[in-house]
Design a protein that fits this description.
Layout (H helix, E strand, L loop, with lengths): L1 E2 L6 E2 L11 H9 L22 E4 L14 H5 L3 E2 L2 E2 L12 E7 L3 E9 L7 E6 L6 E4 L10 E9 L3 E7 L5 E7 L18 E3 L13 E6 L19 E9 L6 E4 L5 E15 L5 E4 L19 E5 L1 H13 L1
């Protein structure tokens, strides 16, 4: 299906697939002979000026996680079209295979997304992750002999070297990976710790704290006849699905951004790259960054991830009323 900017209605897609490589796929290819391209060395410099941070609004109430995206918070959230081409810089596809929205409250960071796909394929990697009482199958982000589909979110969490890489699919499999990037001046750069181009720790999992718990859900879209999409069934034509993810805020820190000119942002922000893999005809990747050069691994472009600022409209209105009353 395709997103129509004028009507905000979903339309039937005609996806022509092109082969590209994922974060994980690129890493595997690098292991068998390709040179890893890092952001601070051989990757081309971004030609697009940095944009100001986009707002992520606070939800007035906890969001129900059922995958249906019918909470008022999602109506208020700005849609983010994930259709920048993998091998280009600042070039969008004419199709929009994924739309993302973000929200937050005092306890959680929320992700909502729509995937438009005619043949959904969702695999787990055989592991069970998560704390006792809140476990789930781990999503497989890539497979050499399978046409895997995945929604991927990369969160910068500090020092231009620490990231979360999150994988979610249409069967509600979820996997979190903690990445550590090493610069060429690091003592660990030419060691086994960095053999993928970063340290890839996929045994780490989001821990719950009391009643603050991770949760995710999916909901299948239906076709014109009311038939829902059916993952891993090649005999029918899918339309896509919607997904929701709720992450305890303690796992998603904010930061003061250092701008290209070296100045520090006065507000606390967050950097997030949204990625969509559609495997219908190979490895077709789209992402959400206008500034990312069309080369190298997604993780190594962390400084070019889109910037967001968490805004509390209710508090802002209260401050304005107090200021007006003076």
């Amino acid at each position: 299906m395709k997103y129509n900017r004028k009507t905000h209605r979903r339309q039937r897609p005609t996806f022509a697939r092109t082969q590209t490589l994922s974060v994980f796929a690129c890493a595997v290819v690098c292991l068998i002979g390709c040179q890893i391209i890092t952001a601070d060395e051989t990757a081309p410099k971004p030609a697009v000026a940095p944009l100001p941070p986009a707002p992520i609004y606070k939800s007035a109430r906890p969001i129900k996680i059922d995958g249906e995206l019918n909470d008022p918070a999602w109506t208020a959230a700005a849609p983010i079209e994930v259709n920048y081409l993998f091998n280009e810089t600042d070039k969008r596809d004419t199709r929009v295979p994924m739309i993302v929205r973000f929200a937050w409250d005092d306890s959680y960071f929320y992700i909502a997304y729509e995937i438009f796909d005619t043949d959904l394929v969702a695999l787990d990697d055989g592991r069970i992750k998560g704390p006792p009482g809140n476990q789930r199958k781990a999503a497989k982000p890539w497979a050499p002999d399978e046409k895997v589909d995945i929604a991927e979110f990369m969160f910068h969490v500090g020092d231009d070297m620490y990231l979360w890489e999150l994988h979610h699919n249409s069967l509600n499999h979820f996997n979190e990976v903690f990445l550590t990037l090493f610069g060429s001046d690091s003592d660990l750069y030419d060691t086994a710790f960095n053999f993928l181009g970063y340290m890839y720790q996929d045994e780490i999992t989001f821990k719950d704290r009391g009643d603050i718990k991770f949760k995710s859900a999916v909901h299948m879209m239906t076709d014109a006849d009311g038939n829902p999409s059916t993952p891993n069934n090649a005999s029918d034509v899918d339309t896509g699905y919607t997904g929701e993810i709720r992450i305890p805020r303690l796992w998603i820190p904010t930061e003061r951004i250092t701008a290209d000119d070296g100045s520090r942002s006065p507000s606390r922000e967050i950097r997030i790259l949204s990625v969509c893999l559609n495997g219908n005809d190979g490895f077709e990747y789209h992402h959400s960054s206008a500034r990312r050069p069309g080369a190298g691994l997604f993780a190594n472009g962390v400084k070019l991830f889109p910037r967001y600022i968490l805004l509390d409209q209710t508090a802002a209105r209260a401050d304005a009323r107090r200021e007006h009353g003076r």
